[in-house]
NADPH-dependent FMN reductase-like domain-containing protein (Peribacillus simplex), 178 residues
Amino acid sequence: MSEIVILSGSPAIPSRTDISLKHIQSLVEKEGYTTAYYSITDFSADDLFQGKYNSEDISKLAEKISKARGIIIGSPVYKASYTGVLKALIDLLPESAFKGKPVLPIMIGGSHRHLLAIDYALKPLISILKGEPLQGIYFVDKEIDKTAPESPIQDLNLVDRVQGQVQEFVEAIQLRNE
């Protein structure tokens, strides 16, 4: 079927953000989609911090995003927002990089106090890039089991929420391609 681009904004390796995104990636692939997974750690610090928008790696990412049917973007919560290094990467993409694409935002924070980081930080960023943000999923760190990457989510209500958001994402992609 169609390709989905997944962007991880976590500088940690391994991270709960990556574990969560890879779990969601597997769910999307079960729906018949192919995926391309990118982490900010895949890009050179020189490209990110010196704003090399024309670097080969950034150009390849921009091309992949332009051909994608949908995007999943995730970040840990740092100071009530997404990571600065994710913003550095996003700043190098074309202004309308996400134009007309459904975007599923994912954030992982230390507590429920940062729940609105998706609405007040990540969704506006997605909108600036002309993407169409879905509701999204906020995880608390302790809800992600780093020792069980195949099934990192143990809470059944959260499992249902994740599956529901994946279904909404898939439906949004299908609606735009009919």
